[in-house]
């Protein structure tokens, strides 16, 4: 897909985020975009939290007139590079042992956060990266967002389709099970034909739209930019 429809700013390797941090609904939140935007986009980040790549992604979405909010649902407890260093296997195992069970603890905070925005915005889209996708699936019955976007979705299962009752965009990487992703897409399309999008990126690693994105140039950077173009086009087509 070309960027002609959206004309997003160019992706940069060295990047200074355009948003700011404040406390919204009791949570530290990265906020960017016009306050009077009709559509708000709530992001549930991946396990690396506020990485430079995901902040740039939020800014790219906001550049098209959306109010983008990224709450600190993990309250500062993110995966750090040192967990992957030799000798830290026990710490790494301990951190990741919180998933997928720990996802359940985020359902209520995410639902409340999304619901609290509805008085100021006519539509709410939610974007989940990695584990964040599964949170959105579990929270949807109470959050009632108006669209769901899953970026390299972790823990995807065929029954996820049962919970998706709004337009959905799925952007799996080469690390996801395409049998599962195709089943979800086919099922939700049967419920609402033409309102959903599935675009796989088989050559990209899990996390390429967030902390594992390589923005130094080449195909990985092009695919990062393309992914955000697809997200914005989906938002424009949906709302």
Description:
The chain contains seven helices and eight strands. Residues 1-5 have low confidence and may be disordered. It has 239 residues and is α/β, with parallel strands linked by helices. The protein has one domain (20-238): Rossmann fold. 33% of the residues lie in helices and 17% in strands. It has helices at 52-62, 89-96, 107-116, 131-143, 160-163, 178-191, 219-238; strands at 20-24, 27-32, 39-44, 67-71, 123-129, 147-151, 168-171, 197-198.
**SSE order, one letter for each helix or strand:** EEEHEHHEHEHEHEH
Low-confidence stretches: 1-5
Output the CATH homologous superfamily.
Answer: Alpha/Beta hydrolase fold, catalytic domain
Q: Structural class per helix/strand content?
A: alpha/beta
| Count of discrete domains | 1
CATH class: Alpha Beta
User: What would the CATH topology be?
Assistant: Rossmann fold
Gyration radius, in Å: 17 Å
Number of strands: 8
Kindly estimate the percentage of residues that lie in beta strands according to DSSP.
15-25%
Give a quick account of the main beta sheet: strands, pairing sense, barrel closure: 8 strands, mixed
> Percentage of helical residues?
25-40%
Shape: globular
Distance, first to last CA: 20 Å
CATH architecture: 3-Layer(aba) Sandwich
**Spatial strand arrangement across the major sheet:** 1-2-4-3-5-6-7-8
